[in-house]
Design a protein that fits this description.
Blueprint: H1 2-21, E1 26-30, E2 38-43, H2 54-62, E3 65-68, H3 77-84, H4 99-113, H5 125-131, H6 144-154, E4 159-161, H7 165-174, H8 177-189, H9 193-208, H10 211-219, H11 224-228, H12 230-251, E5 254-259, H13 269-275, E6 279-282
Parallel strand pairs: 2-5, 3-4, 3-5
Antiparallel strand pairs: 1-2, 1-6
Helix pairs in contact: 3-7, 4-8, 5-8
C-alpha cells in the first residue's frame, strides 16, 4: 500500500510539474465564483515585432475590458509622472558619481539623446536608463501594450490599470539610488553592449513562451537591479495585484496584460491566483 501511495504521489507530482511547465504567454482564469472567464497575457515592454497572436485576439474578443499594469489612458498620468520622477531628499545624479564617471555618462547621453545629464540631475536614475531602451534594439521599437490598447479602442472597451503610476515609481525609491546609478555607469561605459545582448536574449526567450525560463533569466542578469531586487520589481507587486485582479475579474470578463516575468515562479501571478482558488490554464 505504501508503494502504491508513493507511486500515486509521484504521478501527481509529475502531473503538477507538467502543468506548470506548459509554455504559454496566455492563460485562462476561471472558477472561484467567476461567471465568465478572464485572460492573463505576459507581455514584453519593448520589441521589434509586437504582432498579437491569433489566440490573444480571440481572448480579447471574449473579454469586455483591458487591464494593464498602468492605465495608459489616464489623463493625469503625465502630471503624476513628473511629480514622482525626481529623487527624494534633494539627491542628485552628480552626488552619486565621481566627477570622472559623471563626465563619461554625460558625454554618453549627449551622444545618444542630445541631452546633457546636468539637465536631468535630479531624475531617478532608472528613468534615465529607460530613455535608452530604444537604443538597445536594432529596429524601430514596438510595444505589446500599445497593440492591446489599439484593439481595446477598436472594440470601444475601457483600459484600466492594476496599479497607479505613483505605486510603480515607488519601487524605484525602494531600490537604492546608488544601485541605479551604478547600472547607468555600466551601460555608458560599455556603450550598451551588455544591455543589447541581454535584451536580445530575452526577446528570443519570449518567442518560446517559456515564462519559467524568462523568470530564471532575470535572476541571473548582470544588471544588479534585475537580479537582486526581485521582491521590489516583481514579487511584492504580484501579491498586491491578486486581490485587485480578483475584484476586476469578478465585475466583468477582463483581459489582463502584464510583463511576462510576473507570471512564473512560486510568487508569480499564476500560482498566486491558483492559491486563491482560481483555475488558471495555459492557452496553447
Amino acid at each position: 500500500m505504501k508503494k502504491i501511495a508513493l507511486l500515486i504521489g509521484l504521478l501527481l507530482a509529475l502531473f503538477s510539474n507538467a502543468q506548470t511547465e506548459k509554455k504559454s504567454l496566455l492563460w485562462k482564469i476561471s472558477g472561484n465564483g467567476l461567471t465568465k472567464e478572464s485572460y492573463l497575457f505576459g507581455t514584453i515592454h519593448i520589441a521589434c515585432d509586437a504582432t498579437l497572436p491569433k489566440k490573444v485576439l480571440i481572448a480579447l474578443d471574449k473579454t469586455t475590458q483591458l487591464c494593464l499594469e498602468l492605465d495608459m489612458d489616464d489623463p493625469n498620468m503625465q502630471t503624476e509622472m513628473m511629480s514622482k520622477m525626481m529623487m527624494k531628499d534633494g539627491i542628485t545624479i552628480e552626488s552619486l558619481m565621481s566627477a570622472e564617471d559623471f563626465k563619461i555618462v554625460d558625454d554618453f547621453f549627449k551622444k545618444e539623446s542630445g541631452l546633457s545629464l546636468k539637465m536631468m540631475n535630479s531624475i531617478k536614475p532608472f528613468a534615465l536608463s529607460a530613455m535608452l531602451y530604444p537604443k538597445m534594439l536594432d529596429c524601430p521599437m514596438q510595444s505589446f501594450e500599445n497593440e492591446l490598447m489599439k484593439v481595446a479602442k477598436e472594440q470601444k472597451e475601457e483600459t484600466i490599470g492594476l496599479e497607479s503610476f505613483s505605486e510603480q515609481l515607488a519601487v524605484f525609491d525602494a531600490i537604492p539610488y546608488q544601485t541605479q546609478v551604478d547600472e547607468l555607469i555600466k551601460s555608458a561605459k560599455s556603450d550598451l553592449v551588455r544591455d543589447k545582448k541581454e535584451l536580445k536574449e530575452m526577446l528570443e526567450l519570449y518567442k518560446t513562451e517559456d515564462i519559467e525560463a524568462m523568470l530564471r533569466y532575470t535572476g541571473r542578469s548582470e544588471n544588479t537591479m534585475t537580479s537582486e531586487f526581485k521582491d521590489e520589481l516583481l514579487n511584492n507587486r504580484n501579491k498586491n495585484w491578486i486581490d485587485r485582479i480578483s475584484k476586476i475579474a469578478s465585475a466583468q470578463p477582463t483581459f489582463f496584460g502584464v510583463g511576462a516575468a510576473h507570471l512564473g515562479g512560486e510568487d508569480g501571478v499564476i500560482k498566486l491566483l491558483r492559491k486563491k482558488g482560481y483555475k488558471v490554464e495555459a492557452v496553447l
